[in-house]
Write a structure and sequence with these properties.
This is Zinc-binding protein A33. Pfam families: PRY, SPRY. One of its GO terms (cellular component) is cytoplasm. By secondary structure, the protein is α+β, with helices and mostly antiparallel strands. It has two domains: about 120 residues; about 190 residues, Jelly Rolls (Sandwich), CATH 2.60.120. Helices cover about 40% and strands about 20% of the residues. The chain has five helices and 13 strands. A seven-stranded antiparallel β-sheet has the order 1-2-13-4-9-10-11, with no helix packed on it. A hairpin with a 2-residue loop joins strand 6 and strand 7. Helix 1 runs antiparallel to helix 2.
Length: about 350
């Protein structure tokens, strides 16, 4: 029996060793695929840069060509005036030598005509830039810039296509939270609300989750966090504890949820009770925070939605249950954190202030 058990363990060990080999191969495969996509995207950006650089060169060359033509005409007119001044200087010199005490008619009609013609021909007002055309060119350039800005960051355009319609479930909200009638905001209050007790209601932490969950595809949502000094945002399984010990119900403290927490200028990511400090983000403030989830890819990513700045990304491998959006507006934090957390329309960019 011992020999058979030994053989059984050896076979199991071989299976585990083979699994390690397969995982290592998977790691290499995914690294190659990621690098290949990054290289293709990098080349496309280089192509765009070359196209824009070439268009800039052509545009500036056209303006330079027009400017050179105008400069040449002005130089010709200056040269005409210079030659005429030399001729007039000579004529003045000749007249001075011929002056006598007798009155003599020394007016020269040809000279008068040359002067008149030269002044007409060299009038600076006759030399004009095509300012209307230049303004059109500038306008097209501005439109191009606006179009490019409307398309970047490209992650913004992509995630906007995954925008989810998130409605908070008031029946899950802690009694010290006020949920708006539309279910699009959560506000902390010192007053314990008169709400019915339900099995789904959080009793020990200031959480609320969405009415509807999802178990496939990709979803993206954004929450306005401006003016707040404490908040938590994330995703959770329905199995997150609602009662009992306070710590068990906090977002990210168990394996049922993922979150990013903001408290007095510091950002921290949480999952399974493991804390991931984000020191590079210390002091950064965002108007909106975005949360992207790829169910098939097992990804939960947090971003500063104003600039699509990555905050933290979790890879779950695969999700075991339906996911719900979750948030915690936090306590009053010594009177600095009364503002609501408001769910935004993630399909549209935040207005530029």
């Amino acid at each position: 029996m011992l020999l058979k058990y030994q053989q059984h363990l050896q076979r199991q060990r071989d299976v585990v060793a083979y699994r390690m080999k397969k995982l290592a191969a998977k790691q290499v495969e995914m690294t190659k695929k990621t690098n290949a996509v990054k290289e293709k995207i990098r080349k496309k950006y280089e192509d765009m840069k070359r196209v824009l650089d070439e268009d800039l060169r052509i545009t500036l060359t056209q303006l330079d060509t027009e400017h050179e033509a105008t400069e040449k005409l002005i130089e010709e007119r200056i040269e005409d005036c210079y030659r005429l001044t030399q001729e007039l200087d000579q004529e003045l010199s000749n007249i001075g030598a011929q002056v006598t005490k007798q009155e003599v008619d020394i007016r020269n009609p040809d000279t008068e005509k040359r002067i008149s013609d030269a002044l007409k021909r060299t009038d600076p007002d006759l030399i004009q830039m095509d300012e209307f055309k230049n303004q059109q060119l500038l306008s097209l350039t501005i439109n191009l810039l606006l179009f490019i800005r409307s398309q970047v960051p490209v992650t913004k355009k992509l995630f906007q296509s995954y925008a989810a319609d998130v409605v908070l479930d008031a029946d899950t909200a802690h009694p010290k939270l006020i949920i708006s009638p539309k279910g699009d905001s959560a506000t902390y209050t010192d007053t314990w609300q008169d709400v019915p007790e339900t099995p789904s209601r959080f009793e020990t932490t200031l959480n609320v989750v969405s009415q509807h969950g999802f178990s496939e595809g990709r979803q993206y949502w954004e929450v306005e966090v401006s003016g707040k000094t404490y908040w938590e945002l994330g995703l959770t399984y329905p199995s997150i504890p609602r009662k009992g010990r306070e710590e068990d119900s906090w977002l990210g403290r168990g394996k049922e949820s993922w979150c990013v927490e903001y408290f007095k200028g510091d950002y921290t990511a949480w999952h399974g009770g493991v804390q991931h400090e984000l020191p590079l983000l210390a002091g950064r403030q965002f108007t909106r925070i975005g949360v992207f989830c790829s169910f098939s890819g097992g990804l939960v990513c947090f971003l500063g939605a104003d600039t699509m700045t990555p905050l933290h990304c979790f890879c779950a491998g695969n999700f075991a249950d339906t996911l719900h959006q979750a948030l915690c507006p936090g306590h009053d934090n010594e009177g600095t954190n009364w503002k609501s957390l408001k769910i935004c329309d993630a399909s549209r960019s935040a207005p530029v202030l």
